[in-house]
């Protein structure tokens, strides 16, 4: 369960979907002069090099963020575009931010952040760029349950497991149910892969049965390479900020 490393997949079409919606939500939430909490259960290393051997091996970034920037998928004023430009100004033209550094771009001094990462090497890398947050080297669900409801109570929780084992799919609906009961005002966002064998489908059905008011955004795309099982990306959002549905539709239209 500690073998997954996102460096092989950073900047792919699923990241583009997830990060465009995340950046939009953070931009919306931080536009108001009220402090907030940002919580992330599976943070990864926070910063990726798209010229590195892992990215070059899979080519997923070339089909994702590199293509999107070349074809102007993101308007110049899109929140993700702004975050990416700052990260590349600071770290070089091949840098790509994971969700912790996207959050860092938007968070203000009065905001509070908690990031969990259990993988030893990924946690060590995260510690070099995650000084703006409380870092937790523990199971992300356990961390989220411990800190929720956070202070400030206004805020966003991102859940983004590796889904390396079936237990991840089984655990998510129960974990989200518990978190929502503890923190009913929080924006709770879950990313999940859409797979050829549809193993994510029971989880999504359970979530929507329990939370029919949630926003569900799914996009489809070809496998990154022959035999690759992921053919899409999904975002489930409880308490979606006003206007997120329109942004989700705009992003989804780019994948058609």
From TrEMBL:
Keywords: Methyltransferase, RNA-binding, rRNA processing, S-adenosyl-L-methionine, Transferase. Gene3D superfamilies: Vaccinia Virus protein VP39. One of its GO terms (biological process) is rRNA base methylation. GO terms for cellular component: cytosol. The active site is at residue 160. HAMAP family: 23SrRNA_methyltr_J. The record marks 4 as: Interaction with substrate rRNA. It catalyses: adenosine(2030) in 23S rRNA + S-adenosyl-L-methionine = N(6)-methyladenosine(2030) in 23S rRNA + S-adenosyl-L-homocysteine + H(+). This is Ribosomal RNA large subunit methyltransferase J. Monomer. S-adenosyl-L-methionine binds at residues 19, 42, 99, 117, 139-140, 160. It is an enzyme of class 2 (transferase). It comes from Paracoccus litorisediminis. Specifically methylates the adenine in position 2030 of 23S rRNA. Belongs to the RlmJ family. Its EC number is 2.1.1.266. It holds the Pfam family RsmJ. One of its GO terms (molecular function) is 23S rRNA (adenine(2030)-N(6))-methyltransferase activity. The gene is rlmJ.
């Amino acid at each position: 369960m500690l073998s997954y490393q996102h460096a092989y997949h950073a900047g792919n079409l699923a990241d583009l979907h997830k990060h465009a919606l995340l950046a939009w939500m953070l931009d919306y939430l931080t536009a108001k002069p009220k402090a907030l909490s940002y919580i992330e259960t599976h943070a990864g290393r926070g910063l990726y090099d798209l010229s590195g051997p892992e990215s070059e091996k899979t080519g997923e970034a070339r089909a994702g963020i590199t293509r999107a920037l070349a074809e102007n998928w993101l308007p110049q004023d899109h929140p993700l575009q702004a975050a990416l430009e700052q990260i590349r100004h600071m770290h070089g033209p091949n840098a790509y931010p994971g969700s912790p550094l996207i959050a860092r771009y938007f968070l203000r001094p009065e905001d509070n952040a908690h990031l969990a990462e259990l993988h030893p090497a990924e946690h060590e890398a995260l510690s070099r760029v995650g000084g703006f947050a409380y870092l937790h080297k523990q199971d992300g669900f356990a961390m989220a349950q411990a800190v929720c409801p956070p202070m400030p109570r206004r805020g966003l929780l991102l859940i983004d497991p590796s889904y390396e084992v079936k237990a991840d799919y089984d655990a998510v609906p129960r974990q989200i149910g518990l978190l929502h009961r503890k923190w009913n005002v929080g924006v709770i966002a879950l990313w999940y892969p859409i797979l050829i064998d549809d193993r994510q489908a029971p989880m999504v059905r359970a979530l929507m049965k329990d939370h029919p008011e949630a926003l569900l955004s799914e996009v489809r795309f070809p496998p990154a390479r022959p035999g690759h099982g992921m053919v899409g990306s999904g975002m489930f959002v409880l308490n979606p900020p006003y206007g997120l549905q329109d942004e989700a539709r705009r992003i989804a239209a780019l994948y058609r």
